[in-house]
Amino acid sequence: MLSILGLGRHRHAYLYGSSLQGLDRPHHDAQTEGMKRILAPLFAIGFLAASSVAQAALPMGATAPEFSTKGAKAGKEVDFDLKQALKRGPVVLYFYPKAFTQGCTLEAHAFAEATPEFAELGATVVGMSADDLPTLKKFSTEACRDKFAVAVATPKIIKEYDVPLARDGKPQGMADRVSYVIDQSGKVVFIHSDLDYRDHVKMTLAAVKVLAKKRP
């Protein structure tokens, strides 16, 4: 259960557009500081680039699959359509395993705190899980603090975004913890895949800042 709670196995992060590699996130503080020193020039270069463990997400530069689904914000049902959202700016689409587990709740708190900064950069944040709509309505208020929408990741969406969570090769009927940044052209420009929730917000925010600097 530790992995679902957000304290489990390390996966991988991708940044698009640089030839630099080897960005697997270490968990110790000293190593984390070293990673920050590596990431800083990457973000300064501009777009997003690549490390690799076993790939379990869309390829970098892929066109994000379009979808519409039901969701909730501030306890109320909403419709979410990716194509419509991209007309307003980039979209941070973050998949998480299960509402009200420890890691997913703390991740939602972190995204809620950062929502104003994402909004200033023109980005929309949407959480995606296989939870049902009543659960998401409650989660959108208690964990997301009415700041951003969470939406139903149907089996089709989970398959198309290649984010099924599995244990020993067996599907668990929920999404893995994977964050995408999708630019306004619909291209995937950033991926962070890690069941440890702690870096998803800061890394997606850094990627969105890079996008903002590249606007004419």
From TrEMBL:
Any GO MF annotation of the entry: thioredoxin peroxidase activity
Catalytic activity from the UniProt record: a hydroperoxide + [thioredoxin]-dithiol = an alcohol + [thioredoxin]-disulfide + H2O
EC nos: 1.11.1.24
GO BP terms in the entry: cell redox homeostasis; cellular response to oxidative stress
PROSITE patterns reported for this sequence: THIOREDOXIN_2 (PS51352)
Pfam families in the cross-refs: AhpC-TSA
GO cellular component: cytoplasm
Free-text function comment from the UniProt entry: Thiol-specific peroxidase that catalyzes the reduction of hydrogen peroxide and organic hydroperoxides to water and alcohols, respectively. Plays a role in cell protection against oxidative stress by detoxifying peroxides and as sensor of hydrogen peroxide-mediated signaling events.
Name of the featured protein: thioredoxin-dependent peroxiredoxin
Taxonomic source organism: Novosphingobium pentaromativorans US6-1
